[in-house]
From TrEMBL:
Spans through the membrane: 42-63, 121-142, 168-185, 253-272, 278-299, 320-341, 361-379, 386-406, 412-429
Protein name (database record): Adenosine 3'-phospho 5'-phosphosulfate transporter 1
Gene Ontology CC annotations of this record: endoplasmic reticulum membrane; Golgi membrane
Family membership: Belongs to the nucleotide-sugar transporter family. SLC35B subfamily.
Keywords, ordered alphabetically: Membrane, Transmembrane, Transmembrane helix, Transport
């Protein structure tokens, strides 16, 4: 396949996909988005993404078949295409068979061997946790401000209008994160390790992250509060199982037991402390809701483990390379979807015609970009399991903080669940610490 044929194929796919999407939109024109069944909406999203994925797959196949023609000693379009489709295997330091063994050893390196190392690890973990907490809280406040409150028109200040295109906010978030990571990479380019895997591998993270977020929001319409709580609390166990499939990481029965104990304690805490608020929400669980929550857990667990697998390559992918690659593909996915649905230009027009909207979107995107740095740093240093535990604890601490600030009572069973979670975490850490000290003594 020559480049001209590839270009014609891409144009044909774009035309067919655009026609299908336009036809489906005409069919669903009289129905608001919330009344469309979720498989139909998911199909529209996947159809839009396919206009990027299929031509990219054809391009990858073409470059791999003719990889020698794309080997150039200087930076050019051919060299970029080779890095995109083939990568840079000449920089691989160790055989593939030894990678998993080193990955397994690296997962245990986060366990300190001395008291001083333990203090340093705790301080670093608290720093990452605080950064994630602050950025996520800021994002939540700004998202609520943008979605729920109106913005005054610049030409008619007495008129307020609401903005409802959430995918545009995701697109802006990805663009700001992309620019931030590019500036960091350009400043410290000589200090960055060579990127061994093909660049397209970051598209898997972008796709799984986008679909997991969509499944989570969509499931809120179909699942009960207890079901949602238990599913989110079980993220640790699902992440461990996905790590076994994606990275070949082996966990002991003791570690699986600690993960299940954390899930049980978190579920007990969240359900007991939110009994009053649960009555006002959805009280039923449907088959669609269970499928969507399963999709959320699986795609989210894949995202964390796939990122960890890239961090474990030798030489490892840096967090800024990861950040750039993921946001690059996410920005393309969102842009194509917005253009095909005809909402990109209308969103830009809304920002130009309303006061303070652009400022709030920029602050939202900036907080999300900084949050990504903390998230990638946590996964790189401590692994996906620790990050999943951090997100579970964050949800619990936010409820404790709300209880203290507003004078609510913390139930007995909520306190028991809180203790169960932290006891399981400290028991797991103590066992790993003891095993780490026992190994040098044996040797």
């Amino acid at each position: 396949m020559d480049p001209l044929s590839w270009g014609r194929g891409w144009y044909a796919i774009q035309s067919i996909s655009g026609s299908v999407i336009q036809y489906l939109k005409e069919v669903a024109r009289d129905k608001p988005p919330d009344e469309l069944v979720w498989p139909f909406r998911l199909f529209l999203i996947l159809l839009g993404y396919s206009t990027v994925a299929i031509p990219a797959a054809l391009l990858i196949c073409y470059v791999r078949r003719n990889r020698h023609a794309f080997e150039t000693p200087y930076l050019s379009i051919r060299q970029i295409l080779r890095s995109f489709a083939v990568g840079n295997p000449e920089y691989q330091l160790i055989p593939t068979g030894e990678k998993q063994a080193s990955s397994s050893r690296k997962d245990g390196d986060s366990i300190p061997q001395t008291r001083a190392q333990c203090i340093n690890v705790v301080i670093l973990l608290l720093f990452f946790f605080s950064g994630i907490q602050v950025t996520l809280v800021a994002m939540g406040v700004l998202q609520e401000r943008i979605i729920t409150r109106g913005y005054r028109r610049s030409d008619q200040l007495e008129i307020e209008e609401k903005f409802g295109e959430t995918q545009f906010l995701i697109f802006c978030n990805r663009i700001v994160a992309l620019v931030l990571s590019f500036l960091i990479l350009s400043k410290d380019w000589t200090k960055q390790p060579p990127h061994v895997p093909p660049l397209y591998v970051h598209s898997y993270t972008s796709f799984s992250n986008t679909i997991s977020s969509w499944c989570q929001y969509e499931a809120l319409k179909y699942v009960s509060f207890p079901t949602q709580t238990i599913c989110k609390a079980s993220k640790v166990v699902v992440t461990m199982l996905m790590g076994r499939l994606v990275r070949g990481q082996r966990y002991s029965w003791f570690e699986y037991g600690c993960g299940c104990t954390i899930a049980f304690g978190a579920s007990l805490f969240l359900l007991s402390s939110s009994t009053k608020g649960a009555g006002s929400g959805i009280t039923y669980t449907s088959f669609s809701g269970m499928i969507l929550m399963a999709g959320y857990l699986l795609f989210d667990a894949f995202t964390l483990n796939w990122q960890k697998a890239l961090f474990d390559t030798k030489p490892k992918v840096s967090k800024y390379q990861m950040m750039f690659g993921v946001n690059f593909f996410s920005a393309i996915f969102c842009a194509v979807s917005l253009i095909e649905q005809g909402t990109l230009w209308s969103s830009l027009k809304f920002g130009a015609e309303h006061v303070d909207f652009t400022r709030d979107v920029f602050l939202l995107s900036l907080s999300g970009a900084i949050g990504q740095i903390f998230i990638y740093s946590t996964i790189e240093r401590f692994g996906p399991i620790v990050f999943a535990v951090i997100m579970t604890i964050r949800q619990m601490l936010s409820i404790v903080l709300s209880t203290i600030m507003y004078g609510h009572e913390l139930t007995f069973w909520a306190a028991i669940g809180f203790l169960i979670v932290f006891i399981a975490i400290f028991v797991d850490i103590h066992k790993k610490y003891s095993d780490k000290k026992r190994v040098p003594q044996r040797s």
